[in-house]
Amino acid sequence: MDAKTTRRGLLKGGIAAGAGLLAGTTAAKAAGDPAITEMQPWNQMLGDGVDANPYGKPSHYEAHVKRRSVEWLTADPVSSVNFTPLHELDGIITPNGLAFERHHGGIADVDPAKHRLMINGLVDKPLVFTMQDIMRFPRENRVYFLECAANSGMEWRGAQLNGCQFTHGMIHNVMYTGVPLRYILEEAGVKTNGKWIMPEGADASGMTRSIPIEKALDDCLVAFKMNGEALRPEQGYPLRLVVPGWEGNMWVKWLRRIEVGDQPWHHREETSKYTDLMENGKARRFTWEMDCKSVITNPSPQAPILHTKGHTVLTGVAWSGRGTIPRVDVTLDGGKNWHQARMDGPSLDKSMHRFYFEFDWDGSPLLLQSRAHDSTGYVQPTKAQLREIRGVNSIYHNNAIQTWYVNEKGIAENVEIS
């Protein structure tokens, strides 16, 4: 075997190639750089001990990495939303402290010792479970994305919010630990005419949604942990419903009751809200699944290119409520030429997927877009394609291709191109 094709040869070649990408800038900075030639304070003094932060927290240098809200978006923060800083993250897992929040009556402060889950309606035996009862069922661990149906909703009529945190940040992707809902329903015994369930939250809004029994018995979880630790209060502590691939409003938090019925309830959140108003004035209802979607997170308006022209790493995330993402294409020129991105990390059903595209930037303006393909063969549409079918009256389920304009200085802006 030729030395260049051995594993060691490939590794050496890869290291050399990687070093060459930045050699010019690194070598220029090395000579006389005080970060190298001078001792830094952290080199000369002892740091805090092991119990300085009994519950760990990020470095204070990362204090800017946080959820953010848009003040004018809602009338009151009690019934509002904040956004995950997608541009600050990598990989596919959202840290618990950065997972976006959406509340309709504020964060319920629930005592787990007093929390109960009731199963009633068209069941053989109505049941009430304590948290300890729930913990005795077999549990599973699943990584899923949760996306608000209104994610990207402000972009229907044109470019509005300048940052992927605000255009696409009503989403998180975490590992949930919980009990398959079918086990709990089987314990109560669903009657033959039981075709729907209605989960209800214990918060002041009394959140309810109608869910078909087929979905309830398929992959729904009653979850109590998130990324290995107990759910955060803002994420439904101590118990929430997980409805993989379907709009986030159905993932009822602070879950206290599940009623089984023979038809949908048509409550507030599935009539006056969470329906899709079409151009002719009629509304689509029960549009639960979240369509295939992607966004470039870097470069983006909150994450400009900070170096001069040369080797540049583009990255983003893609997801689909109908399966996995085998492919993402990216364009640097607004769709004239498309390039297949490199998928990296786990490829899990109804979960985020990470993609990268490395290129040499010549310093000229860029029009960046990503286009995801899901495992069903569906391809993410342009805004024009989506509007042709649905008009511009909608708020929910905007999965159109997003465009960032990057100028010669590396500064990015949310734009729309025809």
From TrEMBL:
- Signal sequence residues: 1-30
Query: What Gene3D superfamilies does the annotation carry?
Result: 2.60.40.650, Oxidoreductase, molybdopterin-binding domain
Picking any one GO molecular function of the record gives:
molybdenum ion binding
Q: Which UniProt keywords apply?
A: Metal-binding, Molybdenum, Oxidoreductase, Signal
Coiled coil location: none
Oxidoreductase molybdopterin-binding domain location, by residue?
104-265
Q: Which InterPro entries match?
A: Ig_E-set, MoCF_OxRdtse_dimer, Mopterin_OxRdtase_euk, OxRdtase_Mopterin-bd_dom, OxRdtase_Mopterin-bd_sf, Sulfite_DH_SoxC, TAT_signal
Q: State the needed cofactors, names only.
A: Mo-molybdopterin
Where does the Moybdenum cofactor oxidoreductase dimerisation domain lie? Answer: 285-403
Name its GO BP terms in alphabetical order.
Answer: sulfur compound metabolic process
Pfam families referenced in this protein's UniProt entry, alphabetically:
Mo-co_dimer, Oxidored_molyb
Query: Under which name does UniProt file this protein?
Result: Sulfane dehydrogenase subunit SoxC
